[in-house]
């Protein structure tokens, strides 16, 4: 018989279940191989394989007809119809109606029923996990006609799945505790503990956190341990000696929607000796008769001490004046009064006794050390919240000015009127950021500013519904491809930053655009949770790997607020136990290629890519310049000019032959503004002026310079200031005269260049230009 689990639940491994599954996994192969000697199909005992000589019988393997599994049933099911648990099916059942199913064991027929034709199991009553956590049942398939079993019985377990239906409880509450007054901040007071009857191994139903509902700002509680500590230093017993705290324990790790329980903790401040005794009057005056005997009681005086017990026991002494030697003072243990006794006889008719108490300047005293005030979260700036009052206890009765200790109001949410003591809001308030403000108010004497009294104003911010509910956590919802219709795939809850007095009530629904979708539906569980169920089966990752489901959550505030939260549902490939193996999109692969072939192709592609990268890397290294590209300035610009320089072939700009040829006859223009008078070393007529070649070398250069100087003087375009003149004059001492190619075309040469033809093809061009044997010019 195959046992199919309920579509509402996926098997999970929790506690004993893990051990059962592991043991079954070890024993199932033994059972398949017949090591127990039991035929799973017939139920008859067989011979041990070791005693059977037939090797075929030894190697024979019987197919299992029963597949064991575990069923889950949700406790406290409130539906009108019986709750579907699971399905039994036998391989012997061919669907012809010859096999019927029988159920026996704990709760059979009274709680669990089975359809003898289909094998469907239902629960007909509400189950309570805290009363019974699981039921052990036996299933059997029998022949409908003979009522004989066609298979042996198979035992399985129906486990009741926990829901959060039990609130935490303080079994030892209420608590009484004490702590010394003036204890430092963080002093431990007492530890409280709450227990939750829900399953601690499943979810967060039994995970409890502690918080303080009433008792702030004097005490605090550690969320995980429940240890209560003092939250304010210097708490004075004489001001207030007892505090009643309300401690809350909330399951679901404190999330909204969790159940909670409360207990009270009465904390008493024990006394320490922190107050001096004080006389009720400034002075006392008594009249004593002369005849009063010695050791008689003259008077009784009493001082008051705010402390109690041994800390309030008095010890009186006479400090100065006429008292020492004449009078003595003792303490009455019962009344704690000071008894003045006469030590010596009086030698006069009467004598007055005056007891004087010195006055000490004391700081202002607030009429109420703690002033409680409330203000709405939406109060406008400037709203009056309450008033504090203080007075000067001294006889001077100085006026009091008020101010706020800004160390207790760092963000300056409040102001106090210096004269009247009225406290008002100075900024908009947010209860979700800070629900209680603990202000220290200074009362300062006008005449003596060094005298400062302190009072506490405890301001509680009242909540308004200004936050919409949202998902409690970021849910990761997985949907198996083999999921059945009506299967619960996710249970969601919500949180809201607001704290209404009546508690939270959330309403869940699918957003309007997807309310009629064919894939999923939502069921509001009416306990601030909701279940997401499938409407159909046959989900495929290849068709759609992820579904987005918008969920509308509405709170019960006034006015009600709502938000739309998106639940992502990923389709997964799961094993037979419903455990997800892989989720998300599936890459399309051809049915003609096996996995091995695909891996081989992928390996070849990776190898080719690696080779290409290596080749590219080697080429880049070879071409790497000495100066890295990164060091070049990317802002460089290349400016191209198409204007070529003059050079030796440029005959358009000026006549360089004239510049370099000293024998050229010049006809300089006479300068208009200067009459030239250039001296020369040789005076000769211009008509008979000799050539430079006939002059001595030392004269040639002088004449050349003077000639150029004269030309510059008579040049009307020359600048009227000193300038540098450069002349490329090579002199006339060379036999070959000037070597410049500028004059090579105007002179004849008898040099023979025919040998250039024998120098090879590289000199062919020169040979053609200069090596003509017929002596004809190449330019003719």
TrEMBL record:
The yes or no answer to whether the keyword Chloroplast is present is no
What are the record's GO terms for cellular component? Answer: adherens junction; catenin complex
Alphabetical list of PROSITE patterns matching this protein: CADHERIN_1, CADHERIN_2
Q: Start and end of every Cadherin domain?
A: 90-170, 171-279, 280-364, 367-471, 471-581
Localization annotation? Cell junction, Adherens junction; Cell membrane
> What main location does UniProt list?
other
Q: Does the keyword Metal-binding apply?
A: yes
Q: Name one GO biological process term.
A: cell migration
**What domain of life is recorded for the organism?**
Eukaryota
Q: Which GO terms describe its molecular function?
A: beta-catenin binding; cadherin binding; calcium ion binding
What keywords are annotated for this sequence in UniProt?
Answer: Calcium, Cell adhesion, Cell junction, Cell membrane, Glycoprotein, Membrane, Metal-binding, Repeat, Signal, Transmembrane, Transmembrane helix
Q: Which residues cross the membrane?
A: 597-616
Membrane topology per the entry is: Single-pass type I membrane protein
InterPro entries from the UniProt entry: Cadherin (IPR039808), Cadherin-like_dom (IPR002126), Cadherin-like_sf (IPR015919), Cadherin_CS (IPR020894), Cadherin_Y-type_LIR (IPR000233), Catenin-bd_sf (IPR027397)
What does the record give as the function of this protein? Cadherins are calcium-dependent cell adhesion proteins.
**PANTHER family for the chain:** CADHERIN-23 (PTHR24027), CADHERIN-7 (PTHR24027:SF91)
Protein's recorded name: Cadherin 7
Gene this protein is translated from: CDH7
């Amino acid at each position: 018989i195959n046992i199919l689990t309920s579509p509402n639940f996926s098997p999970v491994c929790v506690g004993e279940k893990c051990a059962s599954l592991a043991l079954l996994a070890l024993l199932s192969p033994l059972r398949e191989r017949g090591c127990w000697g039991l035929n799973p199909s017939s139920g008859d005992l067989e011979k041990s394989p070791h005693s059977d000589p037939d090797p075929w019988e030894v190697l024979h393997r019987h197919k299992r007809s029963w597949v064991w599994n575990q069923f889950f049933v949700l406790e406290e099911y409130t539906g009108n119809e019986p709750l579907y648990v699971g399905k039994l099916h036998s391989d012997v059942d061919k669907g012809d109606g010859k096999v019927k199913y029988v159920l026996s064991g704990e709760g059979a027929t009274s709680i669990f029923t089975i359809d003898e034709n289909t094998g469907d199991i239902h629960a007909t009553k509400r189950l309570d996990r805290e009363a019974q956590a699981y039921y052990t049942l036996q299933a059997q398939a029998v022949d409908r006609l003979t009522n004989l079993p066609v298979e042996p019985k198979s035992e399985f377990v129906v486990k009741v799945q926990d829901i959060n239906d039990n609130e935490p409880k303080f079994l030892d509450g209420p608590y009484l505790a004490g702590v010394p007054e003036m204890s430092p901040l963080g002093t431990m007071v007492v530890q409280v503990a709450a227990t939750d009857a829900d399953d601690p191994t499943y979810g967060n139903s039994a995970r409890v956190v502690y918080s303080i509902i009433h008792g702030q700002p004097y005490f605090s509680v550690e969320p995980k341990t429940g240890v209560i500590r003092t939250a304010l230093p210097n708490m004075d017993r004489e001001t207030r000696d007892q505090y009643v705290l309300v401690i809350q324990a909330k399951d679901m790790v404190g999330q909204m929607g969790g159940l909670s329980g409360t207990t009270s903790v009465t904390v008493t401040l024990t006394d320490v000796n922190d107050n001096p005794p004080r006389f009720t009057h400034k002075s006392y005056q008594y009249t004593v008769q002369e005849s009063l005997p010695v050791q008689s009681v003259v008077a009784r005086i009493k001082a008051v001490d705010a402390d109690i017990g041994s800390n309030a026991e008095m010890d009186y002494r006479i400090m100065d004046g006429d008292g020492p030697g004449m009078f003595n003072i003792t303490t009455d243990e019962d009344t704690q009064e000071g008894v003045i006794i006469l030590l010596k006889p009086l030698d006069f008719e009467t004598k007055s006794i005056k007891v004087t108490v010195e006055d000490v300047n004391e700081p202002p005293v607030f009429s109420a050390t703690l002033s409680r005030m409330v203000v709405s979260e939406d109060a406008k700036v400037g709203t009056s919240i309450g008033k504090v009052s203080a007075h000067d206890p001294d006889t001077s009765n100085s006026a009091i000015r008020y101010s706020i200790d800004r160390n207790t109001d760092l963000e300056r949410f409040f102001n106090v009127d210096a004269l009247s003591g009225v406290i008002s809001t100075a900024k908009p308030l947010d209860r979700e950021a800070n629900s209680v403000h603990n202000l220290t108010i200074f009362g300062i004497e006008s005449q003596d500013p060094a005298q400062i009294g302190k009072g506490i104003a405890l301001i509680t911010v009242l909540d308004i519904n200004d936050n919409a509910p949202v998902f409690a956590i970021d849910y990761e919802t997985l949907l198996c491809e083999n999921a059945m219709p009506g299967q619960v795939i996710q249970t969601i809850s919500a949180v809201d930053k607001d704290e209404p007095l009546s508690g939270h009530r959330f309403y869940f629904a699918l957003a309007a655009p997807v309310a009629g979708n064919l894939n999923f539906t939502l069921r509001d569980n009416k306990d601030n949770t909701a279940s997401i169920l499938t409407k159909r089966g046959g989900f495929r990752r290849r068709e759609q790997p992820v579904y987005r489901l918008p969920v509308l959550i509405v709170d019960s505030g006034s006015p009600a607020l709502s938000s739309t939260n998106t639940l992502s549902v990923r389709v997964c490939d799961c094993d037979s136990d419903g455990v997800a193996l892989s989720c998300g999109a599936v890459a399309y692969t051809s049915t003609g290629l096996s996995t091995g072939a695909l891996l081989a192709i992928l390996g070849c592609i990776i190898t080719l890519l690696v080779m290409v990268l290596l080749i590219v890397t080697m080429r880049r290294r070879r071409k790497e310049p000495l100066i890295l590209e990164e060091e070049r300035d990317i802002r460089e610009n290349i400016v191209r000019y198409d204007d070529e320089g003059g050079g030796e072939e440029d005959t358009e700009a000026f006549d360089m032959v004239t510049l370099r040829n000293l024998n050229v006859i010049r006809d300089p223009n006479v300068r208009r503004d200067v009459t030239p008078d250039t001296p020369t070393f040789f005076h000769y007529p211009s008509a008979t002026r000799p050539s430079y070649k006939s002059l001595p070398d030392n004269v040639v250069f002088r004449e050349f310079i003077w000639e150029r100087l004269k030309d510059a003087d008579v040049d009307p375009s020359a600048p009227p200031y000193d300038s540098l003149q450069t002349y490329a004059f090579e002199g006339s001492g060379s036999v070959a005269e000037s070597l410049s190619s500028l004059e090579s075309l105007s002179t004849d040469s008898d040099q023979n260049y025919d040998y250039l033809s024998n120098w090879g093809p590289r000199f062919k061009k020169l040979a053609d230009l200069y090596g003509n044997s017929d002596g004809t010019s190449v330019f003719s």
